[in-house]
Write a structure and sequence with these properties.
The chain is mainly alpha-helical. It has a single domain, classed as Rossmann fold (3-Layer(aba) Sandwich), CATH 3.40.50. It has a three-stranded parallel beta sheet with strand order 1-2-3. The protein is globular. The chain starts with a helix and ends with a helix.
């Protein structure tokens, strides 16, 4: 949060100094990297807390931090449009096998098949209550979740990112939302 606050201050200061218009459009996501930082344990093993397990520390922290981020963006960053992008299914609901591990190794995360969906549901609740539009990339990426790049010894890091087809659709959605907002203005 402190990094985001300082970045917002730098952008606003720069734009004020050079008299740049401040009609910002923000597309943001708080997903897998945030979740792994909040919930991860050493060596990428997660102690995920699903409601059925009766331990909601990680999910509660994610909800609280996402609420804080959303409020900060709405209150401190003047913008014409703020859009939230859900966490995509680069860890598809059946698991993303091979992210930096040998292809013949086991996958320590996620522990549950609905890992990404669970945290997206939290995000939907938080973002919808803030009145921010949502682009849902989770269901979009289930059909084609990742690059299939591999190496002789291991699957490569790009397997965790959505492929070009997904980004093409997302770009079109962003542009349409931006155009609709600008045309109203």
């Amino acid at each position: 949060m402190s990094f985001i606050k300082s970045t917002i201050n730098e952008i606003l200061s720069h734009d004020a100094q050079y008299d740049v218009a401040t009609d910002y459009i923000i597309v943001f996501n708080s997903g897998l990297h945030d979740i792994i930082n909040l919930c991860g344990s050493e060596y990428w093993g997660l102690t995920i807390d699903f409601e059925v397990r009766g331990d909601a520390r990680c999910a509660d922290t994610y909800r609280r931090k996402l609420t804080e981020l959303t409020q900060m963006l709405q209150q401190q960053f003047p913008s014409l449009l703020i859009v939230f992008q859900t966490t995509h299914a680069a860890w598809p609901k059946w698991g993303n096998y091979g992210i930096g591990w040998p292809v013949n190794g086991t996958q320590p995360l996620p522990y549950a098949s609905d890992f990404v969906h669970y945290f997206n549901q939290i995000a939907w609740d938080v973002i919808r209550s803030a009145g921010i539009p949502i682009i849902d990339t989770y269901w979009l990426t289930l059909s084609r979740p990742d690059h299939r790049e591999s190496h002789f010894y291991a699957l490569q890091h790009k397997m965790v990112h959505a492929g070009p087809e997904v980004y093409s659709i997302l770009t079109r959605q962003w542009v349409m939302m931006i155009l609709e907002t600008l045309c109203k203005k």
